[in-house]
Design brief:
Layout lengths: L2 H25 L6 H34 L9 H13 L12 H32 L1 H14 L8 H8 L2 H26 L3 H10 L3 H39 L4 H10 L3 H30 L6
Amino acid sequence: MTRPALKAVEDTGSAIAAPVAEVIRLEVPTGPTRRERLRGQAIGVASAVIPPLIMLALILLVWELLCSGANATLPPPSRVWAEANDLILDPFFVNGSQDIGLGWRVLTSLQRVAIGFGLSAVVGIMVGALVGQSTWAMRGLDPIFQVLRTVPPLAWLPISLAAFRDANPSAIFVIFITAIWPILINTSVGIRNIPQDYRNVAAVLRLNHFEFFWKIMLPSAAPYIFTGLRIGVGLAWLAIVAAEMLTGGVGIGFFIWDAWNSSKLPDIIIALVYIGLIGFVLDRLIAALGNVVTRGTAAN
């Protein structure tokens, strides 16, 4: 082949290779840059934070306008801040056995909730597994549970005071008996909904009762269990506040009742904010734990 012909072939190959290389280069996916990732994270945080802040500002503005008149029965936000800002700025002060900050009162209430809710979680999961696994247990116990779960939390307080003759275990019992029902019922439903294929595999592998409970029942029913735990922890937090109003002590519930008797409405409003924030945090913690254990299949 002559030199001009070779040159023509080379030029033709280069002309074909260039577009092909360009196509290949364009088709190779490239990940987002660090700047783009940070920008996306910032947008995500802003979209989650800004809307609640805007709504909170609107609520405070409406509240201020409605309660600033001379005939208003509730204090406006400006008065709440002026009279009770020490409860926000210094929640852990100690001026005496009963004159302590809201932080210490919340911790006292959380300690009771931790004990009562922990007991209800253990007992509720175990009994719920029994009810869900055994038809006879479900027939015998389910009607009793359906009756007991409708009893209001504070209705149990006189019985617990008569049984324990002390305020602290009585409050823990009220938390336990209030929080156990959603845990128990959700666990039993989750156990009954275990696919039959899982049970067949367990039979083929000849798993004993403990192995079946640990390897089959708990993982399969985990989304139901954590849904019950989230409901239970919310009810436990509600129950402790109500119980402490009647049993006394240094908890957040008794603080609200004492502030009412002293006509300190700003203190009550600050305590309600504490209660709401702590309840939200408890729910988020259980939800996060559920997402880890169930790998995102638990309800958010």
